[in-house]
Known about the structure:
Strand order of the largest sheet: 1-14-2-3-4-5
Radius of gyration: 26 Å
CATH architecture of the largest domain: 4-Layer Sandwich
Number of domains: 2
Strand content: 15-25%
Shape: elongated
CATH superfamily of the largest domain: Metallo-dependent phosphatases
Oligomer: single chain
Structural class: alpha/beta
Amino acid sequence: MEKxxxxxxxxxFLGFVxxxxxxxxFWFVNAWHRIQGISRPALRHTLQGVWWMALLVLLAGxxxxxLGHILPRRGLGSWVIAISRLWLVASLFAFLAxxxxxxxxxxxxxxxxxxxxxxxxxxxxxxxxxxxxxxxxGAVPLLGATYGFAAGRxxxxxxxxxxxxxxxxxxxxxxxxxxxxxxxxxxxxxxxEVQRAVAMANDLGADLAVVTGxxxxxxxxxxxxxxxxxxxxxxxxxxxxxxxxxxxxxxAEAAAQHLFQKHGMRLLRQENAELALDGAKFxxxxxxxxxxxxxxxxxxxxxxGLDPLIRRxxxxxxxxxxxxxxxxxxxxxxxxSLAGHTHGGQVKFEIVDHSISPARLIxxxxxGLYHLPMGNGSSGNGARxxxxxNRGLGTFGMPVRLGVPPExxxxxxRAG
Length: 416
């Protein structure tokens, strides 16, 4: 069984590499032929140099993981990796769009021939139409990726969400929680942008501020700069947070906790705190990243050991970076879970009223508000548990947002 799975993974990997080779060969060979056709020697030699430089950047970014991450993770190295990944994805969709239009052009020509009783000369108008349409279709993904990098990733959007909570104490009806998530401070999320997001969050006048993990992407990112900016959040009930998976990767879970404390905040790690607003209390719980689909580390049921932290006499709010912990939280009687992790997929396409997002590969809870029966409905009273998945501020993998703007969330609790 393990051998079969290994062979399957190897086959998928080799197929993936073959697809990348085929697509890149198409673009680079065509570009080279067009450059060769330029009559002005100076321009031709300059573009040939650009061609070689682009090829080297692509190879360096693609081969970096297989060569033990030889490129530095800050500065020029991070830009090389980001640009190569951006091109690989955008060029794939551009290739598919180009070929699809070309296929329609070929089929329309074939249909015209079959429907005609006698041979007809080549219809140059139709041929030119489909050629230019193919160029336009191929340009759309490239232009979209450029927009998502240059502008889309910093168009912060405030989302106002009402959450109906059963048996919510009257003083908590209308309590406001501002949530930030997935900051990923670094080369593609400068400190000034974190500062701007915090200022926007403060304008919302929340009672409680929470940050649900992924302050950084790797160990080279300025963790303290991020946490120092987050400490400027303003909320009467304080600033609270939990770790994300990138704090694990960077070995920074304990450091994040220390820095939270240093700057007057609190990072909850398998801990809870009893808070009160206008005399009404609620229970705030925070956990480190809950592993599920990861290839290494402990496996098993999520939220292990959480039972003693859940209050049966108070409403419970859980900070858990991974939204996949929601089902278990609902079973255990947590009224509201707040998560991030998915970035909403960073890129989303709408096709015939259906959203296509890469985040659906890892979770059913991509972005927004979800609910499940409390305790799997065993209580029989119709109580519901809610989850809100924040789309995050930063990016990872590709510094692009397209159709998924970075988010600042204001959640208002309502008596359900």
